Amino acid sequence: DVTLMYRGELFLRGFDDDMRKHLRDEMQRNTKIDVQFNTNPKEIRKNADGSLTVITEAGAEVECDQVLIATGRKGKLENLNLESAGVKTEGSFIPVDDYSRTNVEGIYAVGDITNRIALTPVALMEGHSLADTLFGGKDRPVDHAFVAQTVFTNPEIGTVGYTEAEAVAKFKNVDIYTTRFRPMKHSFPKSEMYSFFKLIVDADTDKVVGVHVATDGAGEMIQGVAIAVKMGATKADFDATIGIHPTSAEELVTMRTVSYQYRNGVKVEKP
Questions:
Q1: Is the peptide bond prior to 155 cis by the omega test (within 30 degrees of 0)?
Q2: What is the CB neighbour count within 10 angstroms for residue 124?
Q3: Closest by alpha carbon to 209, among 253, 256, 175?
């Protein structure tokens, strides 16, 4: 048995709210994981038999064999003596500009220590960009726009671009396309695992600015989609692409009806 405690109302802060809610619902319906929100552990007690007891701030107790605590991260600046070089820090991180330059000429920083996007491929891109600029004769600032991400949950989540809230704040006029369905591979064995797909479109340009999927193999799927989104594909481009049947991915190019819209930042339920 597994118990998942989360101190807030909903996990995956920073991801699209529909994806967060869908994952919560699927985990609660289709797994034996006891998901507890608004629950903060305050003490872990080791028992005489070697087992552990987790005690929450509310006083509840959970007996278990192992405990994994995800408490976030901080930069490891100790022993670097940055202050002697005058390098500015913010908390445990090093602020840099688009060329990964610190406030001191000739000193650069890339990766998680800069507190931009803490993903290994992003750190690689930052390093390559810096090397190209310094040694490759190219003017290559880092580009953090439309970075695809995956959460290896069940169902898996793949995402690229703006969340709904971010898109509305930036573009004001936004069209939202959503679909929830049971994939064919889960239909024949009568599994209750559902997939959820969402497209976010800038209504003024027709550009797809956000794609969010929760389904089997979402990470593999979203990597290809990210190329199209990065290149500025429009909803018309998606519509003009013929789907592969039978796949879940074909839903990305067959959603035709707007689920709801935003105009001047205000939600309109039906177009």
A1: yes
A2: 12
A3: 175
| Token pair recorded at residue 86 | 């005058």
Catalytic center residues: 245
d(C-alpha 104, C-alpha 229), whole Å: 36
Condensed to tens digits (0 to 9), the pLDDT of residues 59-73 reads 999 999 999 999 888
d(CA 197, CA 50): 45
Phi and psi angles of residue 266, each rounded to the nearest 5 degrees, phi first: -105, 130
Is residue 85 within 8 Å of residue 107, measured between CB atoms? yes
Q: ω before 183 within 30° of 0 (cis)?
A: no
Give me the pLDDT at residue 190, please. 59
Here the tokens at position 226 are: 């990210």
Angle between helices 164-171 and 17-30 (to 10 degrees): 170
Closest CA to 151 of 119, 176, 183, 111: 119
Residues 92, 88: Cα–Cα separation, whole Å: 10
DSSP-derived secondary structure letter, 156: -
Q: Which two tokens stand for residue 249?
A: 């991915």
Query: Please, which residues have CB within 8 angstroms of residue 181's CB and are 6 or more apart in sequence?
Result: 194, 195, 248, 251
Alpha-carbon distance of 209 to 226, in angstroms, equals 10
Which DSSP helix (H) or strand (E) runs through 97?
A: none
Beta bridge partners of 43: 55
Residues 116-128 have a mean pLDDT of 96
> Looking at 37-144, which runs of residues are DSSP E strands?
41-46, 52-56, 61-64
Residues counted in the chain: 271
Rounded (5°) CA angle 41-73-109: 170
